[in-house]
């Protein structure tokens, strides 16, 4: 009996201790820490709009954005910062280049000075990363894959394939797209990983991934030709690009299980759209456990995606176990399964959940971004026929009427300039977030642990101060001077945590555009409504409608 009383008393004390801790943590999270951060930043002259309770400045941001995007733009022009980042424009006018605002309880400091950005991205990548809020917003569709991993976890995931990198393979795709090199962008490192992660190095020949790209693009062109033959003239090109880039990444990740891969990615896209709404829902610790319809829908889609992924993984493992196949395959899935078997000297190992998260991450990070790059580039070329003709002439000259080979891609310099200008005007990722997990010093600034630094890439890319008076105009010529604007150009982020798929994306964009431009001429349709919006990435709200005209073979 006495033992039972002691046991119950201990349980009770533990319960009370837990409640007290929860209470103290909540006070710290919602009151003490925000006050501390506000004070430290104010002492350095960094101020911002007054936050309203637990919602911070979210309400004001939402209302500014819904007002600015309520109407379409009156013509096709590219002065889109006020439309897409109205809070940035409003607050930077009132508080200067550096200001602090609150996304719920997360303090975000806006940073536009490129020297400081360079320092942040190149020196502090291990003590900065993705915040809890960001991870919550995306964890259902990418989990803790590379994009959302932090610290040592990120480091190991990113390094997993480094030793297999072969320098000479890089030369093939290092196409002067190294605008970022003086910012210390680790271009080589990025390429290195994707080669290994995607199984490009050693196992697959360089032609095979460009082979997937060419093969899938041929199929898309065929379906466009068929539609033209049956009398169709106007096309929403965004749909075609989204399907094409999803096909390419599905082939890259799943090769033989490609059809099932496409099915998974279809569900993943629905899941992503649902999760995109999270930024409109107030997110707080524990909110995901609430039995709301929103949470239930997310859960059931996620379970279906995981079930299908597990089915593919299991069937690959079964094939090896029963001896029907001697390896897991040469695609990304096969590579990751091989990594799972390995005992690494650094003690880090991948488990099944990580394999699944990585597959989802590469799909998410790799297809929509590239599809948007292609869609915006077609829009820009369709409304700038002079550049379209110039690029077509270059492609004809370099590729001699054939499908572009990997060796020819670096010679497509005008196309490269157009792609860069498209990425400058419409960078798929409008902002780059970096949460400080430790106190850091950035130039003259002291950044306390707990602040998320927000780099408004879109605003930097459109800054007249940095790019000149024509900053909002389409002028690919500015990229003819290789290093002129490099420090302010960051569509793929910078430093060791830059985009791992940068070279893959550029290669893909060049192949697809070169093949499309050689087959069709295109003009912007009267039905096109210029209305860029941000839903995670910059999208054309109603798609991009163009008239396609087949060219003589
Ligand atoms: C035009 C196309 C693309 C653009 C503009 C783009 C842009 C970016 C940016 C800005 C980041 C940094 C995000 C951040 O840290 O907050 C990033 C990271 C990443 N990208 Fe891309 N990306 C593109 C294509 C691709 C492709 C094709 C793949 C894969 C096949 C890919 C895979 C990734 C991954 C895995 C990361 C996370 C890297 C890390 O944190 O170490 N991306 N990308």
From TrEMBL:
Pfam families: p450
Cofactor: heme
A GO-annotated cellular component: membrane
Family annotation (InterPro entries): Cyt_P450, Cyt_P450_E_grp-I, Cyt_P450_sf, Cytochrome_P450_Monooxygen
Intracellular or extracellular location(s): Membrane
One GO MF term: heme binding
Assigned keywords, A-Z: Heme, Iron, Membrane, Metal-binding, Monooxygenase, Oxidoreductase, Transmembrane, Transmembrane helix
UniProt binding sites for heme: 499
Superkingdom as given in the UniProt entry: Eukaryota
Recorded topology in the membrane: Single-pass membrane protein
Family designation: Belongs to the cytochrome P450 family.
Protein name: Cytochrome P450
Organism: Corchorus olitorius
Upper taxonomic lineage: Eukaryota, Viridiplantae, Streptophyta, Embryophyta, Tracheophyta
């Amino acid at each position: 009996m006495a033992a039972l009383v002691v046991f119950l008393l201990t349980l009770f004390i533990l319960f009370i201790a837990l409640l007290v801790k929860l209470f103290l943590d909540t006070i710290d999270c919602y009151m003490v820490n925000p006050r501390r951060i506000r004070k430290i930043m104010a002492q350095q002259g960094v101020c911002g709009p007054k936050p309203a309770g637990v919602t911070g400045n979210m309400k004001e941001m939402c209302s500014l954005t819904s007002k600015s995007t309520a109407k379409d733009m009156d013509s096709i022009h590219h002065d889109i910062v006020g439309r897409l980042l109205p809070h940035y424009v409003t607050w930077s006018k009132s508080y200067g280049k550096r200001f602090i605002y609150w996304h719920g309880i997360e303090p975000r400091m806006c940073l536009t000075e490129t020297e400081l950005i360079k320092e942040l991205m190149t020196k502090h990548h291990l003590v900065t990363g993705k915040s809890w809020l960001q991870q919550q917003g995306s964890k259902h569709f990418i989990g803790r894959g590379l994009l959302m991993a932090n610290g040592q976890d990120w480091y190991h995931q990113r390094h997993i394939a480094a030793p297999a990198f072969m320098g000479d393979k890089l030369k093939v795709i290092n196409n002067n797209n190294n605008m970022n090199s003086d910012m210390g962008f680790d271009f080589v490192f990025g390429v290195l990983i994707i080669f290994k992660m995607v199984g490009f190095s050693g196992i697959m020949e360089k032609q095979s991934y460009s082979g997937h790209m060419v093969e899938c693009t041929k199929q898309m062109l065929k379906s466009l030709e068929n539609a033209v033959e049956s009398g169709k003239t106007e096309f929403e090109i965004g749909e075609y690009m989204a399907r094409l880039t999803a096909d390419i990444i599905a082939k890259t990740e799943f090769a033989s299980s490609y059809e099932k891969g496409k099915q998974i990615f279809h569900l993943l896209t629905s899941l992503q759209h649902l999760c995109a709404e999270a930024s409109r829902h107030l997110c707080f610790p524990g909110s995901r456990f609430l039995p709301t319809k929103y949470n239930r829908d997310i859960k059931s889609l996620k379970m279906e995606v995981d079930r299908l992924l597990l089915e593919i993984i299991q069937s690959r493992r079964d094939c090896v176990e029963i001896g029907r196949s001697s390896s897991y395959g040469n695609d990304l899935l096969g590579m990751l399964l091989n990594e799972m078997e390995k005992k690494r000297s650094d003690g880090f190992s991948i488990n099944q959940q990580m394999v699944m998260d990585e597959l989802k991450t590469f799909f998410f990070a790799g297809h929509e971004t590239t599809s948007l790059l292609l869609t915006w580039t077609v829009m820009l070329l369709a409304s700038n026929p002079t550049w379209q003709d110039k690029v077509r002439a270059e492609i004809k000259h370099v590729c001699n009427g054939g499908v572009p080979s990997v060796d020819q891609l670096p010679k497509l310099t005008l196309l490269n300039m157009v792609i860069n200008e498209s990425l400058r005007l419409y960078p798929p990722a409008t902002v780059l977030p970096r949460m400080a997990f430790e106190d850091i010093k950035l130039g003259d600034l002291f950044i306390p642990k707990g602040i998320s630094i927000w780099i408004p890439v879109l605003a930097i890319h459109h800054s007249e101060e940095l790019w000149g008076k024509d900053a909002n105009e389409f002028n690919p010529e500015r990229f003819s001077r290789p290093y002129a604007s490099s420090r302010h150009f960051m569509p793929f982020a910078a430093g060791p945590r830059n985009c791992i798929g940068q070279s893959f994306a550029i290669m893909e964009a060049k192949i697809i555009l070169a093949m499309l431009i050689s087959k069709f001429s295109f003009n912007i349709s009267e039905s096109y409504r210029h209305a860029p919006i941000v839903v995670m990435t910059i999208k054309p709200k109603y798609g991009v409608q163009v008239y396609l005209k087949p060219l003589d073979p």
